[in-house]
Amino acid sequence: MADEKPEKNDSLSDLKGNDLPSEVVHDGVPFPWMVSERAVKALKDYDVRDDDIWVTTYPKAGTHWAVEIVNLVLADGHEENIDRTKQAKPMEFDFTQPGAKPPDHLPPDMRIPTYEQVKDWPSPRVFMTHLPEHMMPKQIYQGKGKIVFVLRNPKDLAVSMWHFLLPNKFNPKHEQWNTFFEQYCTDEMVWGNYFTYNLNFWNKHRLDENFLFLKYEDMKRDLRTAVVQVADFLGRPLSDEAIDRVVDKATVDSMKQRFNTAENKSGKIGAPSIIRKGIVGDWKTQFTVAQNEAFDKLYREKMEGSDLLMDFKIKPQL
């Protein structure tokens, strides 16, 4: 069970030049190679518009799901009105940094750093990012822009992240579940430690007016309420009919039909394998008993004193 191989995926490392390491460190945080130093520096001083929407998550916490909900809300539930050419990759991604493959070897949407691509987009711009709290644009903490932050329980996230990372060849420790799990519990994990990442945002910004915190498990339990929360937060209240349209298009089953998955990458939306199972409790198929016990102990230690409660199963609706 623990060493089962994940689904095959295309490798982001295939786009990397031979002179670049697979992992890099910025401000003490490990990142995959396509997060460049120049991108990190540029984003700290990024010019944020008041109506920018930043979907912010630790990787594999439901980023693309939340982005799709935001886009559908802005389009009043009419998917055909979404401009799919304005679908940003994470803002910190820079496939054209020195040492990478020449631009003519890259897909067109990767030939310019993401943070440069979006500068002239019309408002409201919808971005995604996995940057840690201390690397986000400073203007966000001055009240500019709106941040939709999604939290997901760390066990399900670990399984989803392993299935994503292994074929991308960022680190040999990702080749087996057991060695991935050991790294996941430390600060050596790409994008940093799960607990540090999420608690920094939660502790510092959960009361900020330009932040909305959502839980993946709550979204699975009651998607309609989550859609209403997003719409109200964005100042885009929807009619009941529009809410119905958004909910219909924003289910995981609907997105699996329209987005790229590990099984089908032909002519669909988004990067390969951005959607896998989209369920709560999948960790039970991967964690050994010993790993579950060890992680429960780590969870108690890291979350001690915090009022942030994570759900490892879907709570019934009241």
Write the layout of secondary structure elements.
Elements: E1 23-26, E2 29-32, H1 37-44, E3 53-57, H2 63-74, H3 114-117, E4 126-129, E5 146-151, H4 154-165, H5 177-184, H6 194-205, E6 211-215, H7 216-221, H8 223-233, H9 240-250, H10 252-258, H11 289-303
Parallel strand pairs: 3-4, 3-5, 5-6
Antiparallel strand pairs: 1-2
Helix pairs in contact: 2-9, 8-9
Description:
This protein is of the alpha/beta class and about 325 residues long. It is about 35% helix and about 10% strand. The strands form two sheets. Strands 4-3-5-6 form a four-stranded parallel β-sheet, sandwiched between helices. It has a two-stranded antiparallel ribbon with strand order 1-2. The two termini are about 35 Å apart. Residues about 5-10 and about 260-270 have low confidence and may be disordered.
Features:
318 residues, alpha/beta, 4-stranded parallel β-sheet, two-stranded antiparallel ribbon, 11 helices, globular
What is the CA–CA distance across the termini?
Answer: 35 Å
* Strand/helix succession: EEHEHHEEHHHEHHHHH
Strand arrangement in the largest pleated sheet:
4-3-5-6
Question: How many β-strands, per DSSP?
Answer: 6
- Name the beta content range: 5-15%
The portion of residues assigned to helices is 25-40%
Q: Describe the global form.
A: globular
Can you summarize the main beta sheet? 4 strands, parallel
Uncertain ranges: 4-9, 261-269
Structural class: alpha/beta
User: What is the CA-based Rg, rounded?
Assistant: 19 Å
Number of helices: 11
Q: Compute the average pLDDT.
A: 88
